[in-house]
Write a structure and sequence with these properties.
With 401 residues, this protein is of the alpha/beta class. Helices cover 40% and strands 20% of the residues.
Length: 401
């Protein structure tokens, strides 16, 4: 099955691909199995956020029918001890690259994992669609070009970027009366990036950052930074990171320091529903007066109908990035269908059908298309607050095309 060009691959990726090629045919894919990889962190507290995206993708793949082909999913979990692990994410991408029937991948969930995966998938010409990556440098400017290695765009995302998300949350905080804010970030691509964007907008709008710290994934003691926030006389808190980085631990440490009533702002990293391991679950009663965003549309067309079939399949309501995971799989499936219609199903024809044609894809999120670097043209941020132990939608901000 001809799905890639081995020329120019790194030594490790080339070995993986060669091993797969030795075990199977490189002939036409007609009548054969096509596999869509799914790459997310799926254990511990990462599961609350990434699980719905996985389930959405699985549902779309199950529903799909492509004449002459069997479509299946292969799910790999790159979380270690409950947190996303970029090294494992890269290793998982090598696994997908080395399996010749994998024609595209849904994922990853976290920007740091994307930074590890994109060079690998790019060398193999393997299409990726992320439902949730938001760091701008994955695609834009010199950093994005460096990750691609000068090759054709193979990575797209249906979530908009933190250069919109961070400022949207900053404006939201100012509207809610924040004047003096303390910022903590998780030091990785996503956490630091969204915190930087938040800080710049908050200051531009006349706010004061009274302190800022960074603590990496794996931190368990947030008492010192909570004490620092109290000493700085902050009236609000912003956390750049995800639940598994320690957001609920930080929120609880603030309560122990006597400032648990302060408004607590985050971005989509803490907007992960109410299931076991979610921010709300782990922060408990301290989650009240928390605010978050999602780099995606909330007012989804046909949302009720989607929820009915999601509930029937998984026994739970769709939430968070379930819709975006479904949309990514829809886009990949349309790309495969276009390649089938063209009579040549390869990784390159699937990639090209999604990226190079300027096409608009009709998805559960509405019409989605991508710009020259693979970013969605659906530039919407949705804002939420915790009320009564659940996330309540507040409003959308549409930044237009």
């Amino acid at each position: 099955m001809k799905v890639f060009n081995k020329k120019g691959l790194s030594a490790l990726a080339a070995v993986a691909i060669l091993a797969a090629a030795c075990g199977g045919s490189t002939a036409s894919t007609a009548g054969k199995t096509l596999t869509v990889g799914i790459s997310f962190p799926l254990n511990g507290s990462s599961l609350a956020a990434a699980g719905p995206a996985r389930d959405g993708a699985l549902l779309a793949i199950k529903e799909a029918s492509i004449e002459g082909y069997t479509l299946k999913a292969k799910v790999l979990d790159h979380a270690k001890e409950g947190a996303h692990n970029p090294d494992q994410a890269a290793a998982d991408m090598l696994t997908f690259v080395g399996q010749e029937d994998v024609v595209a991948v849904v994922g990853p969930f976290n920007s740091a994992s994307a930074r590890a995966q994109i060079p690998v998938s790019s060398e193999a010409g393997l299409l990726q669609c992320s439902p949730s990556n938001t760091n701008p440098t994955l695609t834009k400017g010199a950093d994005g070009e460096a990750l691609r290695g000068g090759r054709a765009v193979n990575y797209v995302r249906v979530a908009t970027t933190d250069d919109l998300q961070g400022p949207a949350v900053a404006v939201y905080a100012k509207e809610n009366g924040a004047v003096k804010i303390y910022i903590l970030d998780s030091t990785d691509a996503y956490g630091k990036g969204v915190a930087d964007a938040f800080e710049a907008q908050f200051i531009a709008d006349g706010g004061t950052v009274v302190g800022r710290s960074g603590l990496p994934t794996g931190t368990t003691d947030f008492s010192a930074v909570a004490t620092a926030a109290k000493a700085a006389d902050a009236d609000s808190i912003f956390y750049g990171g995800v639940t598994s980085d320690g957001a609920p631990l930080f929120r609880n440490a603030l309560a122990q320091a006597g400032i648990g009533a302060l408004p607590f702002y985050g971005a989509d990293g803490i907007y992960d529903g109410t299931t076991t391991g979610s921010y709300i679950d782990l922060a408990g009663a301290n989650a009240e007066n928390s605010y978050a965003s999602q780099a995606a549309i909330e007012n989804i067309p046909g949302k009720a109908d989607f929820n009915v079939k999601f509930l029937a399949e998984f026994g739970k309501d769709a939430e968070g990035y379930a819709y975006a995971g479904y949309a990514c799989a829809q886009i990949i499936i349309e790309g495969i269908a276009a390649a089938v219609a063209g009579g040549d199903v390869t990784r390159e024809t699937v990639r090209s059908a999604v990226v190079d044609k300027g096409a608009a894809f009709e998805t559960v999120l509405g019409s989605v298309s991508f710009d020259a670097v693979g970013d969605t043209t659906q530039r919407i941020i949705s804002l939420y607050k915790v009320e009564g132990g659940a996330w309540k939608f507040v409003k959308e901000i549409n930044y237009g095309n």
